């Protein structure tokens, strides 16, 4: 049997970021934490934690933490069935999930919040591009994710959520300054675009579809969905925005579409680990219902 | 003299994340990029790029990219003085800066956007905790940052911005459910808190000040300033929110302060590289003016 005291110490170090804080969280001494992890590393035969600020798991360390998360979910289900096991009520389990920033800024945050308010969980939400959240699932860092990929990761189920609609928009002043002579490969190669980060391909995809070839876009990088809108309103650049976030600005004319009727629809999927846990199922129901109300039908 | 063609190739690989995209951006072949970087690595005597997805700079690679950024800023200043050097107008230079998420969600985004709309720059904004943005400056990854540290990093100037006021708040339903018997170490140890990420110490600091000792808080992790507010409104947890973001909800009663008149004020500083560039000075002026209007006076 695996040494679960050691595994708890490992999970705490990863969650807390340091041996000292993990010790505090588990009410033991830092040297106890350190010793448990060293013994576990000797047994497994490799390093499990990169001792950095903050501490990070190695590939194997992450697999072990994932195992721990799943065991805790199973325990939770067991305790629901056998309340005598947990006389003081259910302990909260941590549910790690990965979502894309635009979903978190719009439709999914209320769903996650509602679920968390009504269940004995602690949500650990990571944000990454929808093309990269599958990696988080595959590596076992999370138990569920909003992804751009329909194909289920190993050990996961995949359900279509619908498509998120993006509109290319800018301020009227920006349009006059940069696109007075129309929008094409020439003007797009000069007008600053907004990108969320280096993984954000939306602007490039939209430009490629419009011009039928790759256009090298000048780029401002701004990793916040709301700051993206602020930047567009101030005339900093053009970019693809979730329709839900900019609808009021299109309405009152403070933002305009670059080319009317050229939305970019990004289909999203909900993937979750096939664990025997009612909690994951409950979260999935909440997320799917919110997606049905907010996204374009799959 | 340093081989600036090779340095441009290196900077493009880091910016674009891959050799293929760097090649496209510079209109050369991927093998030309690869060869330039290999020669530079041989000359410097160490690896400059970790070939991963995306490509990342090594410590030395980052130092070289920083040098490149600074040379470009100097070129820009020179071209302003000698317009004949740049007959087609100024090329846009990239200004890498690091800010804390709450500043980006509130007062600094409009300032950066205004500055970028009026100057020949491309902003590259990184987000990190205010206690960690100094690292970005120190490593040379950025030229300016909003930090919690007054002490200037090497080669930098530091100016006080004022303090960002945070209020501990939750929904009335959450208050009834978790704090019906008052707020103290006992109830805080059970009621779920919201934290932005593992670096976010605000909730723990506030609880420590209130209870005069460390309290181990159950934590939901939610890395988005706006989702934080959504989560609070839905009763998911209590947390420290920027006053500017939650003022309307406190007004209409959908959020309430946990303990009235217990704000947490976080002093912020603007640090920037002492480069002889009018662009950095211009950005600093814009940022300091916005801080004066939005933050508590230093």
From TrEMBL, chains A, B:
Keyword Transcription regulation attached: yes
PROSITE patterns: HTH_LYSR
Keywords tagged on the record: DNA-binding, Transcription, Transcription regulation
PANTHER family, per database record: HTH-TYPE TRANSCRIPTIONAL REGULATOR ARGP, TRANSCRIPTIONAL REGULATOR
Family: Belongs to the LysR transcriptional regulatory family.
Protein name, entry field: HTH-type transcriptional regulator
Pfam families: HTH_1, LysR_substrate
Native source organism of the sequence: Cupriavidus numazuensis
Domain HTH lysR-type: from-to ranges: 2-58
